[in-house]
Amino acid sequence: MNTEYDFQDIFRHFSIEGELADCEHYGEGLINETFCMTVREKRGTVRYILQKINNKLFRDVDKLMHNIRLVTEWCRKSVEARGGDPMRECLNLVLTRDGGSYYFDGSHYFRVYVFIENAVAYQSIRDPRDFYECAVAFGDFSNLLSGFDASQLYEVLPDFHNTKVRYQNFLRAVEQDVCGRRKEVQREIDWAMAHSDLCGKIVDKIATGEIPLRVTHNDTKINNVMIDKATGKAVAVIDLDTVMPGSLCYDFGDSIRFGASSAAEDEPNISKVFFRYELYEAYLRGYLSAVGNTITPQERRALPYGAILMTYECGIRFLTDYLEGDVYFRTRRAKQNIDRTHTQFKLVDDMLGCLDKMEEAAITMTGGNVCKKD
Ligand code: ADP
Ligand code: GN1
Ligand code: MG
User: Fold this and answer.
1) Which residues line ligand 2 (CB under 6 A)?
2) Is residue 123 in a domain?
3) What is the pLDDT of residues 21-43, one digit of tens each?
């Protein structure tokens, strides 16, 4: 048993009837500290996920857990209503003995989830089928939550995908140039400025109500999807720390940003980086097969812009961070944030180059709520 924390004491605060037999580090998450608890219960040996919440990033744990509690409760009811397995197809919080969603031991915050057995969260996409399954998982997540009133959620990371605000932050970093790096990245700054018309493409539509606010996950990577070990099919979406009100196009777009690239996010050799259109189509197909009929025609049309914007936004965030001295994104080598900026901007260029084709596919592909061309 790991002895970093008093796990027996932590365990006793959660409503689990049994005896804690073991508790060890688990998984490869980078944000929280995750453990697997093995518990001897009447029904046999049962595993649970215990997480020490990263309260440096998520400073208001009450708000964070308010979001997670509401979303997991809603998902469980939706899965039950469709005759699915609510202990497997969504995250389930185990409450504390006094009905709370987390336990504070005086210095750390802990929460417990039911362990989703016989499933794996892969770190990278092994083949296009994984990417398709990732799309099914996030499409289904949106579908399960389509009736949920997103205004009940707190914005735990305010303006997370407000591209206009991100652009203002970028301009401020250019202006202040605290590290004297501005000259070195003038070409990248010029590129970002020349594409600033992108910023309002979704934010403005949310403001006018043309695109609805929904529950968004905001970290739609493959390692946040549990995939069934035997069938290779998506089981559930995990890691709900960043659930917030947002546009469905953001979640779709962020998956495309990370998954439909030919190379790593920080690939230094830009000639290796290009947008893999066929993976975009695979994701679109999976997403539309699962998202259901609540996706609106306006949202379908905006899916390609979701991908472009998430990539542009990430690019300007990397560039901002470089200008500010690499203070936000973890770097292992000098200029890593410049390499990251380059890959994102190259992908945006590629996507803009095939925007018509991307839009055509988003509008005409079957699944979801089919819509007509303008
Ligand atoms: P982080 O926010 O640090 O990325 P995650 O919530 O994604 O943390 O969890 C880290 C890892 O723990 C996941 O990649 C997965 O392997 C495992 N994990 C998380 N929740 C569960 C669960 N309910 N059942 C099984 N494994 C889980
Ligand atoms: C951060 O650390 P990770 O990979 O979960 C960032 C995302 C970026 C991503 C780029 C909370 O996510 O928004 O897209 O880096 N998460 C936060 O690699 O800022
Ligand atoms: Mg994770």
Assistant:
1) 30, 219, 265, 314
2) no
3) 999 999 988 789 999 999 999 99
Distance (angstroms) between ligand 3 centre and the Cα of 30 equals: 7
Helix, strand, coil % over all residues of the chain, rounded to 5:
45, 15, 40
CB 11 within 8 A of CB 112: no
Mean local confidence (pLDDT), 5-13:
97
Banded model confidence at residue 13, pLDDT cuts 50, 70, 90: very high
Residue 372 counted as domain residue? no
The answer, yes or no, to whether any atom of ligand 1 lies below 6 A from the CB of 49, is: yes
Q: Which ligand gives the minimal distance to the CA of 26?
A: 1
The H or E element containing residue 143 is: helix 128-144
Looking up residue 185, the CATH number of its domain turns out to be: 3.90.1200.10
Neighbouring-strand partners of residue 104: 109
Q: Give tens-digit pLDDT for 52-107.
A: 999 999 999 999 999 999 999 999 999 999 999 999 999 999 999 999 999 999 99
Choose which residue among 49, 87, 123, 227 to substitute to test ligand 1 binding: the one with the highest number of ligand atoms within 8 A of its C-beta. 49
Radius of gyration of the CA atoms of the chain, in A: 21
**CB of 48 sitting under 6 A from ligand 1:** no
Whether 373 maps to a domain, the answer reads no
> What confidence score (pLDDT) does residue 1 get?
81
| Three-state DSSP state, 142 | helix
Which two three-digit tokens encode residue 368?
Answer: 């979801």
Ligand nearest to the CA of 37: 1
Residue 87 lies in a domain: yes
Alpha helices in 145-267 (DSSP H): 163-176, 186-194, 200-208, 248-259
